Amino acid sequence: MKKLLFSLFGAAISMGTLQAQTDSTQQAPAPETITPVKNAATEDKPIKFNLNENGTHYFQATFLNQIWFRYNESNPGTTVVGEPAAHTFDIGLRRTRIQLFGQISDRAFLYFQFGQNNFNFNSQIAGNRKIAAFFHDAMGEYRITKGNQLKLGGGLTIANGLSRFSQPSIGTLLALDAPVFAQATVDQTDEFSRKLSVFARGQIGKFDYRAVISDPFPINTNGSTPVASTNATFSGRDHHKQYQGYLAYNFWEMEGHNTPYMTGSYLGKKKVLNVAAGIMSQKNALWTKEANGSTKLHNMLLWSTEAFIDTPLNTEAGTALTAYLGYYNYDFGPNYIRTVAQMNPADAASIDPNVSSVSGGGNGFPMMGTGNIIYGQLGYLMNKNLLGQGHGQLQPYATFYRANFNLLNDPVNVYDIGINYLISSHKVKLSFDYQNRPYFNLNNQVNGRRGSYIGQLQLFI
User: Fold this and answer.
1) What does the alpha-carbon distance between residue 27 and residue 18 come to, in Å, rounded to a whole number?
2) Residue 35 domain-assigned (yes or no)
């Protein structure tokens, strides 16, 4: 894997240098932005400070708040602060973020993201390390070539090799929330999917690539005490680097390349079709406890293939299609499994003796594990005059998640249907989502299903 990534680095540098030589008479591309897709006729100006007279050097700020209003049908045995709770209603801040970024010279780019996640009534329990806001990203990069053929960078960054949704632009999502399973080590050996990394990324012809070497955090830095068991868990010893690579081929337009984040929905403002593959590996990342009491270390190897399309259907009516399909193959070691509950409104554990611990309490379900996952999204941007001219657009969507994990005897099928009311593009957006998920019995078979009803207000400037 190391040889593969170093070869990719070398090839990227060689190809980037060659491309730079052949394009030596071209001008560098105009600076991109990571603000929402814009309608030039009506959009307000960004919060942007020019550092030179022509604006090619600049520094910019954005602010995002995603507020959730949620009714959840609890998994059996759920408690809230120790009391049984068959259902819950909570109000929370799913994400509150500030971005500060800029092209500070012809080739140097600086990026910070500061904020917090998952702040609700239940977030201030003792031991929660994410009450305070923190830096999500603090990275810089230098463009080696005149165009985007080769950029080298590093720092605390989400630049990732696994998939599109391992580095999602959360301000432009199609569905209510990002598919967190694609951030496969989230808050285990990383900080909300960010790692201390060095990377090379760029666009050569129709190809978009990135190669990343990360220094993952030890598992005990997330507040847990690592203990080996018969099922694989992240190891408490033997530290190794993580290697990642991602390659996409674009059939139509190239996607933006200002930051490593990847757009969820362009709302028909671009015509994008690409296929991609990604990989992530780490030596001795996990361990198990053997029958004789010794521990055995296991390598982590994760890979994916995916396809993404976002295209206008009728430019006069403003209709558009967004769709995604991905296959993920995860090897975390024997019978690894992890249950995740996004902004859990309840206590993490279930007290029902007939429910498997893999279900968890509140809104949890098994999300990552050794096995394979198929995930898809489909969204349709409706006629811009459906609600009357100037009154925004509707964008219904559906997603499905199907995981076959080695530890479970039934697949994990999770369905979401929802609708976005795009009052002002992604800038002012109301969303409603219904999610249906399974819970499991002691034989690790599906024993029933529960639902969540979530409203979200997104404000993004």
Assistant:
1) 16
2) no
